[in-house]
Description:
The protein is an alpha/beta fold. The chain has a 5-stranded parallel sheet with strand order 2-5-1-6-9, with helices on both faces. A two-stranded antiparallel sheet has the order 3-4. A two-stranded antiparallel ribbon has the order 7-8. β7 and β8 form a beta hairpin. α1 packs across α9 and α2 crosses α3. The longest helix is centred in the C-terminal third of the chain and has 24 residues.
Amino acid sequence: MQLERAARIILVGAPGVGKGTQTERLMKRYPQVSSVSSGDLLRDNVRNRTPLGIKAESTMKVGSLVPDSMILRLITNELTTRGWLSTPASTIPLTLNTSAAAATASLDPPDLDSYITPPNDQDAPIKTSDDPSASFILDGFPRTAAQAAQLDELIPINLVVNICTPVSIIIDRISNRLVHEPSGRVYNTTFNAPKVEGKDDLTGETLTKRSDDDPETWKARLKKFDQTSLPLLDHYDKKGVLWTVEGNSSDEISPRLFEEFGRRFA
């Protein structure tokens, strides 16, 4: 199905609620929609030794968390590179300063901030493309209301989907979950079982359970999610872009999500 305008979406839901499944189904039904994952962007930039990756890796090596500002730069750079975000001044991606490049060659890097050259005047207005091909689902960020407020300054999110599934259902899913560690493929013995019991469909390798897939651990994670997600949902509710869908399974949720998504963008 074709979209009439760009969809800039965030899926919010407790761990195990099926956000990944809904993302895959939306992209399959609407090929103009892409997934932009902050985690994937971080790993790709570190692996490819980009300026942002160099800075992020240096931060992680000293045991620090990658700051929100750096994640926002990763997202902004990705959207700018794709042509979905721009300013009148430039659409050039973030680059390595000449001085930083020289220092890297000499193995004596300067202050980490000099690795990043902003692509344009910080006061220049940022424009987002409304072309349907500029549609994306942002995964992994924001997780808090404070992060959402920072994101608002750069990207006008126009739909936040709050996916609600009972805790008892989530715990049951986790208890029956199997994973293929090398690829990250996930199975469930109750509704997405592997073709051969205990074996990955593509490689035939043995599936395992994650060490933290136990009910008590997950109850603690779900409680923490509730504490951080309520302010986030309230933030987007006040902006008028929040929509909530409830269901016991992904198969219940998907048709309702498709209908709402189509009503807004198709």
